[in-house]
Amino acid sequence: MAEYIGRxxxxxxxxxxxxxxxxxxxxxxxxxxxxxxxxxxIEDLDFFRCKKEYTSIILKELDEFGFVFDGxxxxxxxxxxxxxxxxxxxxxxxxxxYCNCTRSHLKTGVCHCREKGLKENAQxxxxxxxxxxxxxxxxxxxxxxxxxxxxxxxxxxxxxxxDKVISYNLACVVDDIHQGVTQxxxxxxxxxxxxxxxCLYNALDTECISYLHLPLAMADETYKLSKQNRSPAVLDQxxxxxxxxxxxxxxxxxxSGLNPQMTPKVILNKALDNFEIQKIPVGKxxxxx
Length: 289
Ligand SMILES: [Zn+2]
Fold this sequence. Notes:
Order of helices and strands: EHEHEHEHHEEEEHEHEEHHHE
Number of strands: 12
Strand order of the largest sheet: 1-2-3
Strand content: 15-25%
Bound molecules: zinc ion
Number of helices: 10
Shape: globular
């Protein structure tokens, strides 16, 4: 059997919050449990939201939790040429097109840019959009959820925005392919985009990989924890050992032999010994303060 390769891929738009810790711990534990590798990728392509200083802070915080990733962190902003190359190749293959519609036009109007056959021009701020093929899957198999039905609802997917920001979907798929990732473990907020991302795998002539979606940490019934809605930094809520135990409990793991006086490394090692993937719950979970 091929070697398991997983990854944790935070965006440096703020410090780690509890939801990021759950994703880090979940992807880390699943990879270790499967005797695989776990890579760290910094998804910092949105230069409006991501800041360099947060990259160093996130690396330091992950270290405080005792995580040891395989290899050097992969910093997406250092590889932008790769994403542009892939996007242009998709245009050459007639799988993507240049578009000069504004975002507000795309929300309400119809885009006719594909028929216009716009060419890239240094003067124009053109977006580059991927054509969702007419034949595509509307469901996928998740290791925790089983078969998830999630119909693709768009006919095109932005790969590069007019402001030149490379989209999350393009970079994530290109990197997962390039880094040989065999399973994506991530939060359930990304379930809906999965079948759309699978269209990109097909367009890039690559077999789709396997998925495992973790429960979503919610501040209450409606709000997921995220940097955008200013969720508190997890290390402001308690010391690393205590927060690790809390994250393990969130993933429904046995924490009976653990206590906050242990170092994060000891907690992590003990947790990995006893980690049970089948116990990971589905759906959303409100975290208690
Ligand atoms: Zn358009």
